[in-house]
Amino acid sequence: MNARAHLALMVLLATLAGCATVPSPAERTQHADALAQAHGWVAEDLDAGRFVLRSYHPRQGSAGGVLTVYLEGDGLAWLSPTLPSPDPTPLTPLALQLALAQPDGSAAYLARPCQFVGTRHCTTQDWTGARFAPDVVTGTSHAVDRLKASLGARELVLVGYSGGAAVALLVAARREDVRQVITVAGNLDPDAWADWHRVPRLTASDNPARHHDELRALPQVHLVGDRDPVTPAELAQRFQAATSAGTPSQVIEMPGFDHGCCWAQDWPALWKRHAYKGSTTRR
């Protein structure tokens, strides 16, 4: 991204965030609750170590099958390029929309730390500089354990949207039961992403790009939009080029897609085309 495009993006983000119509955290939570309830899903707050993580899921899963867990993006992490948000609950929970659009199989949604549940046990760092920190990854993995047990799953697919992609890869690098990671407009290498946008690196965070060896046997599908200025396709291609030899990973560039459009509306077809369905041995 050149300096002019970068400046335009920052101005746009600041303008949108400063608008008086930005819903309150309670209103954002009510919106997600309504989306889930319309599909018969329930909300559950999961104890995940230092964090409590909001989940939405069906009342029961498919015992012994594959559970797909959708990890949310960074949410409303910043009010301006230099001012952190007081609450990172997303304006549009796109990962929840993806989960609800999955056409078959068992699915559940997992928010990121401090989203939907209040910030009393959080610090601002948890959704800014430390949003991919080891304790975030540990807490997320614990919450995934809870979902897997309660919904009766044997295997996992992780789907990460935007910053949730980094968390999905970091969680998968620690586990033996993840059969596939799908990323959607994903931040796969936070250091490269920060350099691209000319912002400080997330020094308190981990980075999937440091774990290519642990991920070398993991099937990965990285879906990127060719019009996405936030997580450009070029960064996904660089991540792919750095993967260990023989890694079953691919980048699929979607014409006309950007960071928000048109993932949810096209998700049923994308899911049927790319998602893992059967039992194989990862390692």
Quick one: biggest sheet? 8 strands, mixed
Q: By helix and strand content, what is the structural category?
A: alpha/beta
Tell me the fraction of residues in β-strands, as a range.
Answer: 15-25%
Termini gap:
38 Å
Count of distinct structural domains = 1
Shape: globular
Using the 3D structure, state the CATH architecture: 3-Layer(aba) Sandwich
Reading off the top of the CATH hierarchy, the class is best stated as Alpha Beta
Instruction: Compute the number of strand runs.
Output: 8
What is the CATH superfamily? Alpha/Beta hydrolase fold, catalytic domain
Q: What is the average of the pLDDT values?
A: 92
Order of helices and strands: HHEEEHEHEHEHEHEH
Q: Using only CA atoms, what is the Rg?
A: 17 Å
Topology:
Blueprint: H1 3-18, H2 25-38, E1 42-48, E2 51-57, E3 66-71, H3 94-101, E4 106-110, H4 134-150, E5 155-161, H5 163-172, E6 178-184, H6 190-197, E7 220-225, H7 233-241, E8 249-254, H8 263-274
Helix pairs in contact: 3-8
